[in-house]
Design goal:
single chain, about 130 residues, alpha+beta, Yope Regulator, Chain: A, six-stranded antiparallel beta sheet, 3 helices, about 35% helix
Protein backbone atom coordinates (compact mmCIF):
# COMPACT_ATOMS: atom_id res chain seq x y z
CA UNK A 1 0.00 0.00 0.00
CA UNK A 2 2.81 2.47 0.82
CA UNK A 3 4.46 2.12 -2.61
CA UNK A 4 1.07 2.74 -4.17
CA UNK A 5 0.56 5.96 -2.18
CA UNK A 6 4.00 7.25 -3.17
CA UNK A 7 3.33 6.37 -6.81
CA UNK A 8 -0.02 8.20 -6.67
CA UNK A 9 1.68 11.24 -5.12
CA UNK A 10 4.27 11.25 -7.88
CA UNK A 11 1.53 11.18 -10.53
CA UNK A 12 -0.17 14.09 -8.77
CA UNK A 13 3.10 16.03 -8.63
CA UNK A 14 3.64 15.45 -12.34
CA UNK A 15 0.13 16.71 -13.09
CA UNK A 16 0.67 19.75 -10.87
CA UNK A 17 3.87 20.67 -12.73
CA UNK A 18 2.57 19.93 -16.24
CA UNK A 19 1.12 23.42 -16.88
CA UNK A 20 4.51 24.98 -16.05
CA UNK A 21 7.22 22.60 -17.32
CA UNK A 22 7.59 19.54 -19.52
CA UNK A 23 7.94 16.63 -17.11
CA UNK A 24 9.04 13.14 -18.11
CA UNK A 25 9.46 9.96 -16.13
CA UNK A 26 13.10 8.88 -16.28
CA UNK A 27 14.49 5.36 -16.55
CA UNK A 28 14.93 5.19 -12.76
CA UNK A 29 11.29 6.13 -12.15
CA UNK A 30 11.87 9.70 -11.00
CA UNK A 31 10.43 12.76 -12.70
CA UNK A 32 12.88 14.82 -14.74
CA UNK A 33 12.43 18.38 -15.96
CA UNK A 34 14.19 21.69 -16.51
CA UNK A 35 13.13 24.80 -14.66
CA UNK A 36 14.71 28.23 -15.23
CA UNK A 37 17.81 26.53 -16.64
CA UNK A 38 18.22 24.14 -13.71
CA UNK A 39 18.06 20.39 -14.28
CA UNK A 40 15.60 18.90 -11.78
CA UNK A 41 14.74 15.44 -10.55
CA UNK A 42 11.81 14.65 -8.25
CA UNK A 43 10.69 11.44 -6.64
CA UNK A 44 7.90 10.55 -4.24
CA UNK A 45 8.87 8.18 -1.44
CA UNK A 46 6.90 6.58 1.36
CA UNK A 47 8.91 6.81 4.60
CA UNK A 48 6.24 5.36 6.89
CA UNK A 49 2.50 4.74 6.77
CA UNK A 50 0.88 8.10 6.03
CA UNK A 51 4.26 9.81 5.47
CA UNK A 52 4.79 10.31 1.74
CA UNK A 53 7.43 12.88 0.83
CA UNK A 54 8.52 14.55 -2.38
CA UNK A 55 12.26 14.85 -2.79
CA UNK A 56 13.62 17.40 -5.27
CA UNK A 57 17.20 17.73 -6.46
CA UNK A 58 18.02 20.62 -8.78
CA UNK A 59 21.42 21.14 -10.41
CA UNK A 60 21.80 24.91 -10.33
CA UNK A 61 25.27 25.11 -11.89
CA UNK A 62 27.87 22.59 -12.97
CA UNK A 63 31.57 22.60 -13.71
CA UNK A 64 32.16 25.85 -11.83
CA UNK A 65 35.70 26.60 -10.64
CA UNK A 66 36.05 25.91 -6.92
CA UNK A 67 36.69 29.21 -5.16
CA UNK A 68 36.04 31.12 -1.99
CA UNK A 69 33.71 33.34 -4.01
CA UNK A 70 31.59 30.35 -5.04
CA UNK A 71 31.27 29.18 -1.44
CA UNK A 72 30.33 32.70 -0.31
CA UNK A 73 27.67 32.91 -3.03
CA UNK A 74 26.21 29.57 -1.95
CA UNK A 75 26.16 30.66 1.70
CA UNK A 76 24.33 33.85 0.68
CA UNK A 77 21.82 31.79 -1.34
CA UNK A 78 21.12 29.63 1.72
CA UNK A 79 20.50 32.72 3.84
CA UNK A 80 17.74 33.80 1.45
CA UNK A 81 16.27 30.37 0.70
CA UNK A 82 12.97 29.42 2.33
CA UNK A 83 12.77 25.81 1.13
CA UNK A 84 15.76 23.55 0.74
CA UNK A 85 19.53 23.68 1.00
CA UNK A 86 22.07 24.71 -1.61
CA UNK A 87 25.31 22.70 -1.56
CA UNK A 88 28.62 22.68 -3.38
CA UNK A 89 29.77 19.26 -4.59
CA UNK A 90 33.46 19.46 -5.42
CA UNK A 91 35.30 17.33 -7.95
CA UNK A 92 38.97 18.28 -7.94
CA UNK A 93 39.06 21.88 -9.24
CA UNK A 94 35.46 21.98 -10.42
CA UNK A 95 32.17 21.97 -8.53
CA UNK A 96 28.49 21.45 -9.10
CA UNK A 97 25.96 23.48 -7.13
CA UNK A 98 22.75 21.71 -6.21
CA UNK A 99 19.60 22.48 -4.30
CA UNK A 100 17.88 19.69 -2.39
CA UNK A 101 14.55 19.78 -0.65
CA UNK A 102 12.36 17.01 0.74
CA UNK A 103 8.95 17.77 2.17
CA UNK A 104 5.97 15.80 3.46
CA UNK A 105 3.22 15.94 0.85
CA UNK A 106 0.75 13.28 1.99
CA UNK A 107 -2.64 14.85 2.53
CA UNK A 108 -2.01 18.01 0.52
CA UNK A 109 -4.88 18.90 -1.76
CA UNK A 110 -3.99 19.49 -5.41
CA UNK A 111 -3.98 23.29 -5.13
CA UNK A 112 -1.77 23.22 -2.03
CA UNK A 113 0.59 20.73 -3.70
CA UNK A 114 0.89 22.96 -6.77
CA UNK A 115 1.53 26.01 -4.60
CA UNK A 116 4.23 24.21 -2.62
CA UNK A 117 5.95 22.96 -5.77
CA UNK A 118 5.92 26.45 -7.30
CA UNK A 119 7.37 27.96 -4.12
CA UNK A 120 10.19 25.42 -4.17
CA UNK A 121 10.84 26.04 -7.87
CA UNK A 122 10.90 29.80 -7.31
CA UNK A 123 13.72 29.10 -4.86
CA UNK A 124 15.49 27.08 -7.55
CA UNK A 125 15.23 29.99 -9.96
CA UNK A 126 16.36 32.58 -7.41
CA UNK A 127 19.24 30.42 -6.18
CA UNK A 128 20.57 29.84 -9.69
CA UNK A 129 20.96 33.56 -10.38
CA UNK A 130 24.56 34.70 -10.11
CA UNK A 131 26.02 31.18 -10.10
CA UNK A 132 26.51 30.95 -13.85
CA UNK A 133 28.46 33.31 -16.10
Amino acid sequence: MSEESAAALQVRAQAALAPFVEVAETSDGSLGFEYAGALCSMRAVNLAPGLDVLSLTAVLAWDRPVSTTLHKKVAAKNDLLQFGLVSVITRSRLADVILRYTFPAAGLEDEALTTMLLLVLAGVEDSRQGLIP
